[in-house]
TrEMBL record:
CDD domains xrefs: HAMP (cd06225), HisKA (cd00082)
EC class name: transferase
The keyword Membrane is assigned to this record: yes
EC number(s) given by UniProt: 2.7.13.3
Lineage: Bacteria, Pseudomonadati, Pseudomonadota, Gammaproteobacteria, Vibrionales
UniProt keyword list: ATP-binding, Cell membrane, Kinase, Membrane, Nucleotide-binding, Phosphoprotein, Transferase, Transmembrane, Transmembrane helix
Membrane topology: Multi-pass membrane protein
GO molecular function per UniProt: ATP binding; phosphorelay sensor kinase activity
Superkingdom in the source lineage: Bacteria
Residue ranges of the TM segments: 232-253
InterPro entries: 2C_sensor_his_kinase (IPR050980), HAMP_dom (IPR003660), HATPase_C_sf (IPR036890), HATPase_dom (IPR003594), His_kinase_dom (IPR005467), HisK_dim/P_dom (IPR003661), HisK_dim/P_sf (IPR036097), Sig_transdc_His_kin-like_C (IPR004358)
Protein name: histidine kinase
């Protein structure tokens, strides 16, 4: 369970982390860089050409000043760099030497290109730097604050600060110039914008705004650079991972449980426990597999039980003629007269005939209980086949009055059947009816067009069959313990053979009561034409 869950977890989150983690191997970032680079290179290709043509007309030592003047007319900064002072890799340097425009998806984004055959690289920013964004975002508020303090007398500045605290979420305070150690860079920025800022380790900004008296500064303390703290992002990522992991667990656990139950049931079944079945819930992913296993186990158990019953029944039916043979041989050895010898010889012959009949019937049952691919299906006129078979069998029973009734819709209808198997089924049903009939046997053939089914009814006017035995009579070697079983001899295999032939033809056979007063056997199967 744990191995499966960890394997699935790695399979899901491994590629996800790979796609989300910002690295040079990230395919999403690589694709985005390529698309952005192509776009910017097409946009600024003409710009690079114009600047290069402008620089070609002036001495190379004046290029830095020219670029600085041009930068004032651009929305973003321009820089002139010495190629020997850059940290370009081998691949990038080769591209630069080929005068290609190279895009860098950094903060801020920029393009570079070598100028002619010189050692200079022109760098054009296509996005604002972080400092530029901060400056542009703050200069409007700084202007309003300076105007507000300029319009207020200096002695009222503390009161003004207290009133501003109601609608500014960060700390405001006033400090003198002497309390602040200003660097040269900050002084340059102060001369340009009248304010500068500093950033601490927590990415929080403090603005220093020069006020109208020139000696005081308004300090706006600890303004966050981002609206989302890194810890919040970490918590959200953890919640996302845990939620997906929980969903994966609740999906994996039932699957593992059902597979474990299926494996245990398979092991028990293989060890001989034929009653073992897999407990698999209907909504499970492997419900179909569990159902198939249980169906297979039921079928195997039925086959083994049937085989055991068949073996016991064959042994039982073999025992009777064998006992008669032994007894007849013993008595034949002691017989003194020709009459006695003839009597026991007839007994021996009858026992041998019973053994031969039992063996033949058992072999037929085995054939029709085996591989259905042994059958050879073809189209036949069922009415003609039925008439021929019944006419042949009825000659063995001269005392039986026989009627064949064929419905008009079935008279010329073709049926896809195995001829030998169908003749065997018809013969067994007809012989069974003749054995137990008093005087009359009626065979009817009809066709139900709504279901595309043939129906063969074999009826007799004998003593009939109890309703409780209608299903049992089709079991191999079943002998009914009633007057019908004593009316004729047999091994109880004929109807079992009919049942298997019906199943091979995707049909059914069942027993019932005849309108003649005896038994009725109904053989139903599709025409499949």
């Amino acid at each position: 369970m744990i191995k499966s869950f960890l394997g699935l977890w790695i399979l899901v989150f491994g590629p996800l982390f790979f796609l989300l983690y910002p690295s040079d191997l990230n395919p999403i970032l690589s694709f985005n860089n390529y698309i952005e680079g192509q776009r910017y290179e097409r946009i600024y290709q003409g710009t690079f050409t114009l600047i290069e043509s402008r620089l070609d007309t002036i001495p190379i030592d004046t290029w830095p000043d020219e670029i600085e003047q041009l930068s004032q007319h651009f929305g973003y900064a321009l820089q002139l760099l010495d190629i020997n002072q850059t940290n370009l890799g081998t691949l990038k340097r080769d591209e630069i030497e080929q005068h290609q425009i190279i895009f860098f998806n950094e903060e801020p984004e920029f393009l570079i290109k070598k100028i002619g055959n010189s050692h200079f690289i022109l760098k054009i920013f296509v996005d604002s730097s972080e400092e530029e964004k901060i400056r542009r975002g703050a200069e409007g508020t700084v202007y309003l604050l300076q105007e507000q303090f300029a319009a207020t007398e200096q002695e009222h500045w503390p009161a003004l600060l207290r009133s501003m605290a109601n609608y500014f979420p960060f700390d405001l305070q006033i400090a003198s110039r002497n309390q602040i150690n200003i660097s040269q860079t900050e002084q340059n920025q102060l001369a340009t914008d009248s304010f500068f800022w500093r950033t601490n380790l927590n990415d929080e900004i403090t603005f220093y705004i020069r006020l109208s008296d020139g000696a005081s500064f308004l300090l706006a303390n600890l303004i966050p650079m981002s609206s989302i703290h890194p810890s919040v992002i970490i918590v959200l990522v953890l919640v996302f991972v845990l939620s997906i992991s929980a969903g994966m667990f609740f999906w994996t656990y039932p699957l593992w449980r059902d597979l474990k139950n299926l494996l245990a049931a398979t092991s028990r079944f293989g060890s001989g426990d034929l009653n073992s079945r897999a407990l698999v819930y209907k909504i499970s992913t492997v419900a179909t597999l569990g159902k198939a296993f249980n169906h297979m186990a039921d079928r195997i158990e039925q086959l083994l039980k049937g085989q055991r019953t068949l073996t016991n029944a064959i042994a039982h039916d073999l025992r009777t003629p064998l006992y008669r043979l032994r007894f007849a041989f013993e008595m034949l050895a002691n017989a003194k007269t020709d009459r006695e010898k003839e009597k026991y010889q007839q007994s021996i012959s009858k026992s041998l005939e019973d053994l031969d009949s039992l063996i033949n019937q058992t072999m037929v049952l085995s054939r029709y209980s085996g591989d259905s691919q042994l059958l050879s299906f073809a189209k036949y006129h069922l009415a003609q086949l039925l008439d021929d078979e019944c006419s042949s069998v009825v000659q063995l029973y001269p005392d039986i009055h026989y009627q064949l009734q064929i419905a008009p819709e079935a008279s010329g209808k073709l049926a896809l059947i195995d001829q030998i198997a169908m003749k065997r089924a018809i013969s067994n049903l007809f012989i069974n009816a003749c054995k137990y009939a008093r005087t009359t046997v009626v065979v009817r053939l009809s066709f139900v067009s709504e279901t595309d089914m043939f129906v063969i009814d074999v009826c007799d006017d004998g003593i009939g069959i109890d309703e409780s035995d209608w299903e049992r009579i089709f079991l191999p070697f079943e002998q009914l313990d009633n007057a019908r079983s004593h009316a004729a001899s047999g091994h109880g295999l004929g109807l079992a053979i009919v049942k298997h032939i019906a199943q091979w033809h995707q049909g059914t056979v069942c027993a019932g009561r005849s309108d003649l007063g005896g038994a009725r056997f109904t053989f139903t199967f599709p025409s499949r034409t």
